[in-house]
Specification:
It is a single chain. The chain is elongated and about 155 Å long. The protein has two domains: about 1-335, ATPase, nucleotide binding domain (Nucleotidyltransferase, domain 5); about 400-570, no CATH class. It is of the alpha+beta class and about 575 residues long. It has helices at about 40-50, 80-95, 125-140, 150-160, 200-210, 215-220, 235-255, 280-290, 315-320, 335-435, 445-450, 490-505, 520-530, 550-555, and strands at about 1-5, 10-20, 20-30, 55-60, 70-75, 100-110, 115-125, 140-150, 170-175, 180-185, 190-195, 265-270, 290-295, 440-445, 455, 465-470, 475-480, 505-515, 535-545, 560-570. The chain is built from 14 helices and 20 strands. About 45% of the residues lie in helices and about 25% in strands. The strands form five sheets. It has a five-stranded mixed β-sheet with strand order 3-2-1-4-8, with helices on both faces. Strands 11-10-9-12-13 form a five-stranded mixed β-sheet, with helices on both faces.
Length: about 575
C-alpha cells in the first residue's frame, strides 16, 4: 500500500507491505515544498511523475480540522449495532449542518468497562471530501482510501507503543496545525485538530531575530529552543504557552466526555517536525504534569523504521489503516470509489478466474455432448420399457377396479346369506314371546333401520372410493378424499367396535301395544332375555299413538290409544 502525506512544507510518500501480520516499510520518498507556495499542485504533480506514482492508487489524508469526531458508549442492554447508532447521530448532524454528512464508525470494548462498548464516529461534509479527491487528482494520484489524519496518527503510534492499559495521548505537530488522538490499545477514544503548529514557533523566531520566515525556519532547528540557554527562548516560551493553552482546551473537551478517572491520560507522545524543537518535551511535561515522550522513545519502533520516526508517522499510519492492520479503521472514501479500488486490485485475479472458468465451461460442454451421444440409445430403450410398464400398470388398475366393483355388488347377497338364518331364528323367537294382544310392524337389521353411508376401500386408478347407497343394493364409484390418518384412540375404538360386531348382531323390532303401561312389552323383553342366544335386549323408545280426529268413520269406531315401541335385540353369533 502506498500512502502520501501532503503537508504545508513537505510531501512524504511511504510504501508499506504486510509480511504476515507485521507491517514493513519498503520505501520512503520525501519532497520539500517552498514556503507559502501558491500553486503546490504543479510541483507535487511533477514530483509524483518522477517517483513513478502517476495515476497510482494511494492513501491520502484528510486534515483533522476538516473532519468531525463523535464519541459515545453502548450499554450491554442496548440491542442496537454501532452502525444503527451512528445512523441516528449522523441524522442530527446532517440536520444541523444542512448537508448529508459522510461518515464511518468503529466500536471496541475497553478493558476496564465490563459490558460496555465504546464507539467513535468520523464524519465530514461531502464538499470537503470532494475537494480532497479533486486535490489528489491534481497531484496526479488516485485515492485508494481517505483517512482522517488523527486516525492515521493513532494507528501509527499504537503500533509502536507496546502494551498499556491506560489511555495515551498522541500529538503530531505539523507546520500549520496539530493532530491530537487519545486512545487505548483496543481503540480510539477521542480525536481533534488544533489550528496551531510549528509555524507559530517560526513566526516567534522571525519576530525576535528579524529574519525571513525561511531563514527563521532554519535557525529554529539550529540554536533556538525553550531552555534558558537557547536563543529566542522567551519568545518561544510565549508561543509555546499559546500552543499549550489550545492543547489544554482540546483536552478539556476530552475530559468533559470521559469524566471517569480511568480515562485520564497516562502519557503524552509527541511527534512531527514541531516536536523536534529543543526543550519542548520538558516544557510541555512541566506545564501539563503528564509524562511526555517522543515517538522515537516508544519501545516497539522497528530498527529499520527508527531513522524515519517523527517524520513519516502520518504517512505510515495512513498505509497501516488502509491495510486494516491498525487498531481503528475509519474511512471517509465514498462507496463508488471504494468499489473502483477493489475492482482494480482484484482485476488480475478476476481475469485469471474468467480464463479458467471459460476453459472449464468448454471442457464441461464437450464432455456433456459426448455423454449425451453415448447415452441417447440407452435412454430411448428405457423410455420404451417405461411405456410398456405404464400400460401394464394401467391394465392392473382396471382389473382392480372391476374386482372392487364385483366385491361391492356382492356385499348385499353375502349379507343376506350370512344373516338370513339368524334373522329367521330371532324372528321366530320374537313371535313366540310377544303377547297375543300386541303386534309387530317392523323387524329389520339395525344397519337398515339406521341407514348410513359406509365407506368401503376400493382401489381405483383415480383414487375413487366405493360408497354404498343405503337405498340401493349396488355400490357406485365416486371420488372422495383420502382418509385421514387415524389417531391411536380412534384406531383402538375402531378395533373394539369390529370385535363387538364380529361377536354379535343387532336387530330392531318395532310394534304396537294397547297396554298403556307397556307391561306386555316388558314381559316380552324378560322372556327374550332368558334365551341363551340373546346377548342384550333394550327398549329403545316408546311413543303414544292417539286416536285420529277429524275423520268421521274412524271416530265412530272408537279406536283406542296405542303405544308404539322399539326394541333393540343383540344376538350372539354362533
Amino acid at each position: 500500500m502506498i500512502a502520501i502525506d501532503v503537508g504545508a512544507r513537505s510531501v512524504r510518500a511511504v510504501w508499506v507491505s504486510l509480511r504476515g501480520s507485521t507491517p514493513v516499510v519498503t520505501r520512503v520518498e520525501p519532497f520539500a515544498l517552498p514556503l507559502d507556495e501558491e500553486e503546490p499542485h504543479k510541483l507535487i504533480g511533477a514530483w509524483i511523475d518522477k517517483v513513478g506514482l502517476t495515476k497510482h492508487f494511494c492513501v491520502i489524508a484528510l486534515p483533522g480540522s476538516q473532519a468531525v469526531f463523535q464519541s459515545g458508549r453502548i450499554m450491554h442492554t442496548d440491542p442496537r449495532t454501532p452502525q444503527q447508532i451512528a445512523a441516528m447521530d449522523i441524522a442530527q448532524f446532517s440536520e444541523m449542518a444542512g448537508d448529508a454528512m459522510s461518515y464511518d464508525v468503529s466500536a471496541f470494548e475497553p478493558p476496564f468497562e465490563v459490558g460496555v462498548r465504546r464507539y467513535i464516529m468520523s464524519m465530514a461534509r461531502p464538499s470537503v471530501i470532494a475537494t480532497a479527491i479533486r486535490e489528489a487528482e491534481l497531484n496526479h494520484v488516485r485515492p485508494a482510501d481517505l483517512i482522517a489524519a488523527p486516525v492515521a496518527l493513532f494507528n501509527a503510534m499504537e503500533s509502536f507503543a507496546g502494551d498499556h492499559e491506560e489511555p495515551w495521548c498522541y500529538v503530531n505537530i505539523g507546520h500549520t496545525q496539530t493532530e491530537v488522538a487519545v486512545g487505548l490499545k483496543t481503540g480510539l477514544l477521542f480525536a481533534r485538530s488544533i489550528p496551531l503548529g510549528g509555524k507559530l514557533f517560526t513566526e516567534a523566531v522571525s519576530q525576535t531575530t528579524g529574519l525571513s520566515p525561511v531563514q527563521a525556519e532554519v535557525r529554529k532547528h539550529v540554536d533556538c529552543g525553550l531552555r534558558e540557554t537557547d536563543a529566542c527562548f522567551e519568545s518561544l516560551r510565549t508561543a509555546a504557552d499559546r500552543w499549550i493553552s489550545q492543547f489544554n482546551a482540546c483536552m478539556g473537551v476530552y475530559r468533559s466526555q470521559f469524566q471517569d478517572r480511568k480515562f485520564n491520560t497516562a502519557r503524552l507522545v509527541i511527534t512531527g517536525a514541531g516536536a523536534q524543537l529543543k526543550g519542548f518535551k520538558e516544557y510541555l511535561a512541566a506545564k501539563t504534569a503528564i509524562p511526555v515522550v517522543t515517538a522515537a522513545e516508544l519501545p516497539n519502533v522497528p530498527a529499520a523504521y527508527r531513522p524515519h520516526i517523527g517524520v513519516y508517522d502520518l504517512a505510515f499510519g495512513l498505509a497501516l489503516t488502509a491495510l486494516h492492520a491498525g487498531t481503528t479503521y475509519l474511512s471517509l472514501l465514498p462507496g463508488d470509489l471504494k468499489d473502483e479500488v477493489i475492482f482494480r486490485e482484484k482485476k488480475p485475479w478476476w481475469v485469471v478466474a474468467a480464463v479458467l472458468l471459460t476453459g472449464s465451461m468448454a471442457l464441461y460442454s464437450a464432455t456433456g455432448v459426448y455423454l449425451l451421444q453415448r447415452d441417447g440409445a440407452q435412454l430411448d430403450d428405457e423410455r420404451d420399457q417405461l411405456r410398456k410398464r405404464e400400460q401394464i400398470d394401467k391394465h392392473i388398475q382396471e382389473i382392480k377396479v372391476l374386482g372392487s366393483q364385483m366385491l361391492t355388488n356382492a356385499l348385499p347377497v353375502s349379507g343376506l346369506l350370512m344373516n338370513g338364518p339368524l334373522a329367521r331364528e330371532v324372528l321366530a323367537l320374537v313371535a313366540s314371546t310377544i303377547d297375543p294382544n300386541d303386534w309387530v310392524t317392523l323387524f329389520c337389521d339395525e344397519k337398515i333401520y339406521n341407514p348410513k353411508e359406509q365407506d368401503v376401500e376400493t382401489t381405483a386408478p383415480n383414487a375413487a372410493a366405493a360408497v354404498r347407497n343405503p337405498f340401493s343394493l349396488f355400490r357406485t364409484i365416486r371420488p372422495s378424499a383420502a382418509p385421514a390418518a387415524a389417531t391411536p384412540d380412534k384406531k383402538e375404538a375402531s378395533a373394539k367396535k369390529e370385535r363387538v360386531d364380529a361377536l354379535a348382531t343387532v336387530f330392531i323390532v318395532e310394534g304396537y301395544t294397547s297396554n298403556p303401561s307397556l307391561k306386555s312389552v316388558r314381559e316380552m323383553i324378560e322372556r327374550l332375555k332368558t334365551s341363551p342366544d340373546i346377548a342384550r335386549v333394550d327398549l329403545r323408545s316408546d311413543d303414544k299413538v292417539l286416536s285420529p280426529t277429524g275423520i268421521p268413520e274412524l271416530e265412530a269406531e272408537k279406536v283406542p290409544n296405542f303405544r308404539r315401541f322399539v326394541i333393540q335385540i343383540e344376538v350372539k353369533r354362533p
